[in-house]
Amino acid sequence: MIVRAIIEWDEEAQAYSATCPELNFVSSFGDTKQEAITNLEDAIKLMLEPIPDNLFL
User: Fold this and answer.
1) DSSP helix/strand/coil, 17
2) Residue 1 domain flag
């Protein structure tokens, strides 16, 4: 799956933010661009993970 990611430097937080607008604006951050991208990939994987059937009883 290919999705668009927006990477920005946040001056106040002194970190990079990474946001994916196509996936409900899933976002993450990191001290480096690569760390922000890696963290965003993890957040996307968690968001797309199926909800277990036994969660709703």
Assistant:
1) strand
2) no
Task: Give CA–CA dist 11/43, Å, rounded.
Answer: 22
Query: Looking at the whole model, is its pTM more than 0.90?
Result: no
Other C-beta atoms closer than 10 Å to the C-beta of 30 total 17
| Domain contains 37 | yes
* Residue 41 phi, psi (nearest 5): -60, -45
Contacts of 32 (CB under 8 A, 6+ apart): 16
Number of domains in the chain: 1
pLDDT digits (tens, 9 = 90+) for 22-53: 998 899 999 999 999 999 999 999 988 887 77
Helix (H) or strand (E) holding 3: none
In contact, 21 and 29? CB cutoff 8 Å? no
